[in-house]
Amino acid sequence: MTYGVLAVSKPGCHIFSGCGFPAPGAEIFQFDAIFTFSIGSLEFNVSKVTVLLFLAVVVILGFFGYAFRKPKLVPRGAQSVGEIGYIFIRDGIVKETIGKGGEKFIPFLFTFFFMVWLLNFWGIVPGAQLPVTSIFAIPVAFAVIVYLLWVPLGIYTQGPIGFFKNIMFPPGVPKAMYVLLTPIELVSNLIVRPFTHAVRLFANMFAGHLLIATFSVATFYLLSFTVVGLIGTAASFTMTILLTAFEAFIQGLQAYIFTLLAAVYIGSALHAEH
Amino acid sequence: MNVLTSLLAAGGESGEEMPSVLAVPLDEFIIGLIAFLIVFGGLAKFALPKIKETLDERANLIEGGLERAGAAEAEAAALLDEYRAQLAGAREEASAIRTQAQADRSAIIEEARNEARGAAAAVTAAAEASMSAERAQAISSLTKQVGELAITLADKIVGEALSDDTRVQATVNSFIADLEGQAAR
User: Fold this and answer.
1) Residue B12 maps to a domain
2) Is residue A29 one of the residues assigned to a domain?
3) What is the 3-state secondary structure (H, E, C) of chain B?
4) Does residue B78 lie in a domain region?
């Protein structure tokens, strides 16, 4: 079975050819392995996802490595651009959200923001056209990293009892309410939180990519020299362009939200809420 | 196949054919972790410390510059105060010197005046003394000469040498005393 190939790419599937609308589905997120290798019993599939993932690694390390190779007091060129990124993370996310003691988490959050952003960005790069974060395993991996940072960090800074007390017994609530609130808080903070952290990013990128794919498919599917066909194609094409622009915005926004939430979690681990 | 059915197919019988989009294959998960760790390691170890250092240095420079400017300003203000104080001191000193000079001047003038007065008095006294001495001398020499003249005249008239006679001499003296008494009248 060949994944990642749209049904519509088979020639001849048009609106009046008796072919139903080949709505793109989950198969556009499935990719054949280019090659596989095994470490122990685990088989690694190197696919488009893997390639784009490591391309992002190279681009990020390459750009920031180049931009910050010999930083000058008076920045120019790439350094200026890189600095904007650094200052955005430092002032816009870390100082705002974590505050005191947040300085040492800048590299962590910096990495997240630019990794997620670039992986999202592949979705509208011609040739790549896959937001890698729409592959669920990737946001899950990232959310797990964040989870594995803030939970031990909270236990370390607040002590095991203080940490769980702060999570289970939020202050400023009538005592009787804890019967209801404690299980909810426990589940919401320790179980739902990492899940929503991953799903929020994944679902946004997944849905956005699917929308663009659907309208792209529709553009070709409707393309015929009939009134319906021309209007439909033009409308679909316009939608594709608009959605691509919209996605460009969403990609940055989701990267920001993912990083901001990571900072919020770290902040909640560092500073008890009361 | 649309999204819904493929989502519903998660872990279902058709899962073999088409894995659920919510499936998390372990290899992709691990690769995701590794990719993050590589970027994090590279950035945290090499790129970001440098830029942090630079930004801190820049902030320090700006803060240091402001501090230095503040210090320079304070120093300038202190210097200005010092100069003002010095100037005020100098003015006071000058006025004191002027007052002193005025006092000195009056003293000097007074002294000179006194000195001149003294000198003048001395000169006057000396002149007076010498004048009275000369007068006395003149009187005595005139007395003598007039006496001799009178004797000579009487000698000629009487024809006798009376020059060494003490009685004649006494007569001459009383005559001259009468003359002086007439002159004084």
Assistant:
1) no
2) no
3) CCHHHHHHCCCCHHHHCCCCCCCCCHHHHHHHHHHHHHHHHHHHHHHHHHHHHHHHHHHHHHHHHHHHHHHHHHHHHHHHHHHHHHHHHHHHHHHHHHHHHHHHHHHHHHHHHHHHHHHHHHHHHHHHHHHHHHHHHHHHHHHHHHHHHHHHHHHHHHCCCCCCCHHHHHHHHHHHHHHHHHHHC
4) yes
Q: What is the pTM of this model?
A: 0.72
> For residues A185 and A273, is the Cβ–Cβ distance under 8 A?
no
Are A64 and B43 a contacting pair at CB < 8 A? Answer: yes
Interface A-B: count of C-beta contacts within 8 A? 134
Q: Report which residue type is found at A181.
A: L
- Return per-residue pLDDT of chain A as tens, 274 residues: 344 445 445 566 777 777 788 888 888 888 888 999 998 888 898 999 999 999 999 999 999 999 998 888 888 889 999 999 999 999 999 999 998 888 999 999 999 999 999 999 999 999 999 999 999 999 999 999 999 999 999 999 999 998 988 888 888 888 888 899 999 999 999 999 999 999 999 999 999 999 999 999 899 888 888 888 899 999 999 999 999 999 999 999 999 999 999 999 999 999 876 4
Of B30, B35, B50, the CB nearest to A57: B35
What is the residue whose two structure tokens read 């240091």? B64
Split into its structural domains, chain B has a count of: 1
Contact yes or no for B35/A57 (Cβ under 8 A): yes
Best probe of the B interface among A45, A118, A136, A259, by most B CBs < 10 A, is A136
Number of domains in chain A: 1
- B77 inside domain: yes
Structural domain includes residue A196: yes
Residue span of the structural domain in which A152 resides: 48-270
Nearest to A54 among B18, B35, B57 (CB): B35
Which chain B residues are Cβ-neighbours of A56 within 8 angstroms? 35, 39
Q: Which domain holds residue B144?
A: 45-184
Question: Residue A116 domain-assigned?
Answer: yes
Q: Does any domain span residue B61?
A: yes
Residue of B nearest to A90 (CA): B52
Element (H, E) at A118: helix A106-121
> Looking at beta carbons, which residues of chain A come within 8 Å of B20?
26
In a domain? residue A31: no
- Does the distance separating the beta carbons of A141 and B33 come in below 8 Å? yes
